[in-house]
Design goal:
Elements (H helix, E strand, L loop, with lengths): L36 H4 L3 H9 L4 H34 L10 H20 L4 H18 L14 H26 L4 H23 L4 H29 L2 H46 L7
Helix pairs in contact: 2-3, 3-4, 4-5, 6-7, 6-8, 7-9, 8-9
Length: 297
């Protein structure tokens, strides 16, 4: 349907409306899924092995299904390992994954390859060779899991654990919002929710980098985000039934208000962090001057 556009330079308008102001791109903060075709193709070998084992009798079928299960487990662990590694690399402060999924995936892949080799060439030598080669090639193709913490020096682990719990709860609220909005089947609203979630994750990253900000941000990442989730669920229920444009407009305005609130709070947290750094610098300078060291300012 054709729409009439207005704004500052239109014949019947001389002021700039909020809609005329440049808006951030809906794709700001978008990331490519680390699970690509290279890892998805690993789901094919277990399927092939399972089908080829159907004509090998009861023993051959059981062994083939065991090998297919090991290969399938390895492919599934690899997907989770790649996603965990992407999250680790994206954050400046992060703990190593608790479970080395990529390493376990390589082991499972090696076991599955060894079992597959045994079905066609029973013995010990051939399965060991094929299994070892498959595991080594898997590690060479996808690498190891992160094996050490990043940026954790000088950070209180107790505070970091508190932040982790709040962040996990916030991510659950964001996931629930995404699931609810899909029911509305409106791409514009989905893009608007994604933009709001990007702003929320900026606050999350700020709190993760400095756990002292948790007290100031806890209400935003808890109460306010829970309210946004509930509003998204109610909007999706209403809009999916009636396509009510008034409800859509109200929900979009709510997201705008929430996004501005999260943005202002994030900026304040960053300014507070800068103030803390300035205080630390001044204290260090005073100590050096008391020791007789004069610094040029």
């Amino acid at each position: 349907m054709a729409q009439r556009f207005g704004g500052k330079y239109s014949p019947d308008g001389s002021t700039v409306t909020p809609e005329d102001r440049p808006q951030p791109s809906a794709y700001k903060g978008a990331k490519v899924d680390p699970v690509g075709a290279r890892s998805n193709v690993l789901f094919l070998p277990p399927i092939i092995l399972a089908f080829t084992s159907l004509s090998q009798g009861a023993t051959g079928l059981a062994v083939g299904l065991a090998g297919a299960g090991a290969l399938l487990l390895g492919a599934w662990l690899l997907r989770d390992g790649l996603r965990a590694e992407a999250v680790y690399n994206d954050r400046r402060v992060s703990r190593r994954p608790a479970i080395p999924r990529k390493i376990f995936a390589a082991i499972a892949c090696g076991i599955g390859a060894a079992i597959a080799a045994w079905t066609s060439e029973p013995g010990v030598v051939a399965p060991v060779i094929f299994g070892t080669a498959a595991g080594v090639l898997h590690l060479g193709a996808f690498g190891l899991d992160p094996l050490k913490d990043k940026g954790m020096e000088g950070i209180d682990t107790f505070q970091q654990d508190r932040v982790a719990r709040v962040v996990d709860e916030a991510e659950k609220h964001l996931a629930a919002m995404s699931d609810a909005i899909k029911r509305a089947s409106d791409r514009q609203v989905e893009a608007r929710v994604e933009r709001f979630q990007t702003k929320v994750r900026e606050m999350i990253r700020t709190v993760e980098e400095d756990p002292r900000d948790l007290t100031a941000a806890k209400k935003y990442l808890g109460v306010y985000l829970m309210g946004a989730r509930d509003a998204a669920i109610k909007f999706a229920d209403i809009y999916s039934r009636s396509q009510d444009r008034g409800a859509k407009s109200d929900f979009m305005m709510l997201l705008t208000d929430l996004e501005e609130g999260f943005d202002k709070k994030t900026q304040k947290l960053l300014l507070d962090n800068n103030s803390d750094l300035t205080v630390e610098i001044e204290v260090l300078r005073d100590r050096l001057q008391r020791e007789g060291v004069r610094l040029k300012t």
